[in-house]
Amino acid sequence: HLNSSNENLKGMKIEHYWIEGVTGGTCVVCSKTTGGPTHLSGFRCYWCQGKVCCYACRDKLESDTDKGVCTLGRTRDFRIPPTFLKINNLEDPSTWEVLPLDDDITPIIVFVNPRSGGQLGIGVMQSMNKVLNPRQIFDLTKGGPAPGINFMHKNEHIQWRILAAGGDGTVAWVLSILDQYEFKNPPPVGVIPLGTGNDLARSLGWGSGFSDPSILPTLIPKIKQQGVPVLLDRWNLKITENKDTNDGKEHKGEEGQVTTKIINNYFSIGIDAKVAHQFHTTRNKNPEFFANQTVNKMWYVKFGTDAVVDGCSGLEKIHLKIDDLKVQLNCPLEAIVVVNLPSCYGGAFLWDHEKVLENFVSVAEKELDPMSICDKKIEVIGIKNSIHLGQVQVGLAAPVFLGQGEHITMSWDTDMPLQIDGEPWIQPPSTIEITPLPRQATMFA
Fold first, then answer.
1. Torsions phi, psi for 156 (to 5 deg)
2. Span between the terminal Cα atoms of the chain, in Å
């Protein structure tokens, strides 16, 4: 890549930044092998990753009018050049200033959750440090997404893009902080899937998982070559607690207390949320037993098997309306799921349009639209029990199709397990209302 175009950004010369000691590679000057698996030798440019085998080759390269200029390597179009970033206070990214860049440069800000995917998050940070400016990478355990997003907002003259490395919860966290800022052109958000389910990543074409941080130098350029911005519907969930129940039990919570949450992927009530709640409770108590994505999925199978015996009662008395029309639950259900994405439960595609039309018989219901992530409509399905849930997850059975609409309401009169985008909790008797957010999120697919 040292032989690619060396035209300087805005006429400013960028010099190589040499690091001594290379574990292997080919000298760009004399083509000799540098270093090896058992010894270090030569130099590597931190920015473009070009290697030279000795001082003589380094001096020869730097004296070359053309090759002596650092091209910033394969990720030039996504990197903030070191001489274009003015840092006034190292600890406060809101004081960092980015000088105007060439129009074809669209820097990526990377938010990494190092706790996701076992140790994969740490590996992603290490690899990203080699291909981007380290000031473009933010560890979410150190202040969350706000410092990085504030930095982008202070430098809105730059065409930013975002990569969120983590699970669906990590992406939701980044989007929630983006909501707090008024960007003229909101930066599109891409995903490096390090979580367990990764349904948003699947729906956007980023894949079901990620296991090799070493491919990032080749993956990042594909964002510009193949990626396109898309809009994503997001939904407001309003929860109003109701302690006036008929079950004779004492419930936590306050009468009329209102809570609001955001749905990006799905909302569910019942058996699947119960399994997720058991998983999260156990993981929080014993994080050492949840080392990677494969182990996490095995734990889900264990809790799902337990649910075959335990089940989940309470849904038989639930009141469900779609666009103000009451939905009759014609068969016993142990879960109701409101889905915004094609992928749910770690790869299950719940809204098969052909199967939907086969199950609905009225003319009005046959006018249901194919599923879309940007049509301001959301789909509602039912799960009969934990065995049916397992069959749906592996594609051996279809869920119970309940409807499609823009306005969903539910109410119940006993404590129930709920979850949003894989984040579960126990909710006292309540009424919920699901409505579309006015502004859709800009994602990268």
1. -75, -5
2. 27
Query: CB within 8 A of 418, min separation 6: which ones?
Result: 267, 268, 269, 273, 424, 425, 426, 427
In this predicted model, what pLDDT tens digit does every residue of 63-74 receive, in sequence order?
887 777 888 888
Is 304 strand, coil or helix? helix
> CB within 8 A of 394, min separation 6: which ones?
348
- CA 326 distance to own-chain centroid: 34
Q: How many helices (H) and strands (E) does the chain have?
A: 10, 25
Determine phi and psi for 210, rounding to 5 degrees: -145, 130
Task: Detail the DSSP E strand segments found in 315-444.
Answer: 319-322, 325-326, 335-339, 343-344, 348-349, 378-383, 400-405, 408-412, 416-420, 423-427, 430-436, 441-444
Q: DSSP readout, 146-209?
A: HHHHHHHHHTTTS--EEEEEE-HHHHHHHHHHHTTS--SSPPPEEEEE-SSS-HHHHHHTS-S-
**Using alpha carbons only, what angle is made at residue 286 by residues 284 and 290, rounded to the nearest 5 degrees?**
90
Give the integer Cα–Cα distance in Å for 150 and 169: 20
Q: Give tens-digit pLDDT for 60-115.
A: 998 887 777 888 888 888 999 888 999 989 899 999 999 998 888 899 999 999 87
CA–CA separation, 298 and 82 (whole Å) = 45
Strand partners, 326: 321
Distance CA 84, CA 100 (A): 8
Residues 6+ apart with CB under 8 A from 126: 213
CA atoms within 13 A on the CB side of 27: 21
Going by C-alpha positions, the residue among 79, 75, 16 that lies closest to residue 50 is: 16
Which amino acid, one-letter code, is at 259? T
57 close to 50: Cβ distance less than 8 angstroms? no
Q: What angle do CA 246, 251, 255 make, to 5 degrees?
A: 85
CA distances from 424 to 95, 115, 270, 427 (A): 37, 18, 11, 9
Alpha helix stretches (DSSP H) within 254-374 = 271-285, 293-310, 353-359
* pTM recorded for the entire structure: 0.82
The DSSP bridge partners found for residue 417 are 426
Strand 85-86, strand 51-52: pairing: unpaired
What would the mean pLDDT of 46-70 be, rounded to a whole number? 85
**Tokens representing residue 152 in the block:** 């982008």
